[in-house]
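hey
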């Protein structure tokens, strides 16, 4: 177990959870955040592994998005489900990634994650607008590695 608390304070964690709630008011897509210190694996592979571990492949519209962050490695991966990939153009996540990258470069992890979540929500809105019968299909809590 890694000490994620060294990177993200309780207050920052709450801010991230709030950002997920705000983002999910725009879209039926489900956003989750996983934070760990580092991994031996390829970050894309590890993100996909976490995606399945968290059973994020089980949403109704296959529109879950995982923001995976390996803080010590200074790496992050945005991993969207099939339903999203089917509908969106290539490079769909580029804007979100750029926003996150800029904050991460300055060691500003919390803000990078928060802004990434909010941007992802806006981007998803166009393809997966929020529905009146929306369910919170996946927990908004941060998953920690
Ligand atoms: Ca939802
Ligand atoms: Ca949720």
């Amino acid at each position: 177990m890694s000490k994620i608390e060294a990177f993200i304070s309780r207050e920052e964690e709450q801010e991230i959870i709030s950002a997920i709630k705000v983002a999910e008011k725009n879209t039926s897509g489900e956003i989750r955040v996983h934070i760990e210190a580092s991994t031996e694996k390829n970050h894309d592979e590890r993100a996909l592994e976490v995606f399945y571990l968290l059973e994020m492949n089980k949403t109704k519209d296959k529109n879950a998005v995982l923001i995976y962050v390996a803080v010590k490695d200074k790496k992050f991966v945005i991993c969207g489900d099939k339903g999203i990939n089917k509908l969106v153009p290539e490079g769909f996540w580029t804007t979100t990634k750029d926003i996150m990258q800029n904050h991460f470069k300055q060691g500003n992890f919390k803000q990078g994650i928060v802004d990434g979540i909010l941007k992802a929500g806006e981007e998803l809105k166009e393809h997966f607008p929020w529905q009146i019968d929306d369910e919170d299909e996946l927990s908004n809590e941060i998953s920690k590695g």
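The mean pLDDT is 95. Residues 109-127 form the longest helix (19 residues).
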